[in-house]
């Protein structure tokens, strides 16, 4: 076989602390503001955290649920920037699901005035004057992988129709991620299901991606297999500790793969369902996965071979097995190929920012 040069181009500077009890290893020596999801922290966890932070905690704000909108991000900037301004290098620490972590990614770039926020995020371009604060991310759901990616989703509901913004400054990675599976224990089962489906979507989107490489393939394959084996166990289990630990690991691995490849067609198609059908993100991605799997198989034999390794049971095509697996979780897959409108929508999304990353898109990757 001829020698090949692999251009991995791997870049992920996030310092990751993983495992049971990671939260207890927090040792702060600098001023910190906290953004936390109120539903995700138990009173005991909150008081432990406040005790650990002590006088280093100079500000605290709650995320109260809902989409991560431009308006919500601006309100948080108004609440926390005055405290961050008092001391250069104040760390932003966020604990929560993907929306909380994404809001923190916007908040950590402190601008001269909150009046500049919307324009900055809409144009995805920082003004000349700003301070980039250190960012520590602690996920409390196993799903989004946001703790190891450099971009954030913000919904701009101040324009009609509302649009999804991708805030992605070049140095947008967090300094640290603390992934403690114990923080996911209180996550309700329906939300845990949707978050794990998001992990599966990140893994598969990374496999049928133009930017995939041997490292992202290995991470994504492992993550996909874990979700497929462990999510049904989580939903049936009396004692769900072991599946939760496994799913937290899968989320991190898929996040690392996605941090290099970005997402692709299933994500591109999902945003409409989240906005107009109020469907949670992971669910909205999952409904498209069997269709996109088949499209990927048709587009690339190398990708088809990779996908066949996801289910280690060769008795039926992988896309069909995935379809059945999703039905077993009360998720009904959708297919756009059966109607003219659907095929037009598909071809439109294949040219979108995320759709272009898909192996079957005729347009250059975004
Ligand atoms: Zn996602």
Short description, anyone?
The protein has 366 residues and is an alpha/beta fold. It has helices spanning 43-53, 70-86, 98-107, 117-123, 189-207, 214-236, 241-261, 265-276, 281-286, 289-299, 301-307, 318-327, 340-350, and strands at 15-18, 32-37, 57-63, 91-96, 109-111, 130-132, 135-139, 152-156, 163-167, 176-179.
Keywords, please?
globular, 6-stranded parallel sheet, single chain, Rossmann fold, 10 strands, 13% strand, 45% helix, 366 residues, binds zinc ion, two-stranded antiparallel sheet, alpha/beta, 2 domains, Dehydroquinate synthase-like, alpha domain
Strand content: 5-15%
Give every kind of bound small molecule, once each: zinc ion
Mean pLDDT across all amino acids: 94
- Helical proportion, percent range: 40-55%
CATH superfamily of the largest domain: Dehydroquinate synthase-like - alpha domain
How many helix segments?
Answer: 13
Q: What's the helix-strand series?
A: EEHEHEHEHEEEEEHHHHHHHHH
What CATH calls the topology of the largest domain is: Dehydroquinate synthase-like, alpha domain
Under CATH at level 1, the class of the largest domain stands as: Mainly Alpha
CATH architecture descriptor text of the largest domain:
Up-down Bundle
As a whole number of angstroms, the C-alpha radius of gyration is: 20 Å
How many structural domains? Answer: 2
- Report the principal-axis shape: globular
Classify the oligomer. single chain
The number of strands is 10
């Amino acid at each position: 076989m001829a020698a090949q040069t692999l251009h991995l181009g791997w870049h992920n500077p996030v310092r990751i602390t993983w495992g049971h009890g990671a939260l207890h290893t927090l040792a702060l020596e600098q001023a910190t503001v906290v953004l936390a999801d109120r539903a995700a922290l138990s009173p005991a966890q909150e008081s432990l955290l406040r005790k650990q932070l002590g006088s280093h905690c100079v500000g605290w704000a709650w995320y109260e649920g809902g989409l991560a909108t431009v308006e919500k991000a601006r309100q948080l900037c108004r609440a926390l920037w005055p405290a961050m301004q008092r001391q250069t290098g104040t760390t932003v620490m966020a604990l929560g699901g993907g929306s909380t972590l994404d809001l923190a990614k916007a908040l950590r770039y402190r601008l001269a005035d909150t009046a500049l926020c919307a324009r900055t995020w809409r144009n995805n371009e920082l003004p000349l004057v700003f301070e980039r604060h250190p960012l520590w991310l602690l996920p409390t759901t196993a799903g989004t992988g946001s703790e190891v990616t450099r971009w954030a989703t913000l919904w701009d509901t101040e324009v009609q129709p509302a649009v999804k913004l991708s805030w992605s400054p070049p140095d947008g990675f967090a300094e640290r991620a603390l992934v403690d599976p114990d923080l996911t224990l209180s996550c309700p089962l329906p939300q845990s299901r949707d978050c794990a489906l998001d992990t599966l979507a990140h893994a598969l989107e990374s496999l049928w991606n133009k930017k995939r490489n041997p490292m992202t393939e290995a991470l994504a394959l492992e993550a996909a297999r874990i979700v497929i084996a462990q999510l049904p166990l989580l939903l049936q289990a009396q004692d769900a500790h072991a599946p939760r630990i496994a799913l937290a690991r899968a989320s991190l691995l898929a996040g690392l793969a996605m941090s290099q490849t970005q997402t692709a067609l299933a994500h591109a198609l999902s945003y409409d369902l989240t906005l107009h059908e109020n469907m949670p993100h992971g669910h909205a991605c999952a409904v498209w996965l069997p269709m996109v799997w088949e499209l990927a198989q048709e587009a690339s034999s190398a990708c088809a071979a990779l996908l066949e390794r996801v289910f280690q049971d060769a008795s039926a095509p992988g896309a069909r097995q995935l379809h059945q697996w999703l039905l077993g979780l009360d998720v009904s897959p959708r297919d756009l190929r059966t109607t003219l409108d659907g095929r037009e929508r598909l071809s439109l999304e294949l040219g979108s920012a995320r759709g272009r990353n898909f192996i079957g898109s005729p347009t250059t990757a975004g």
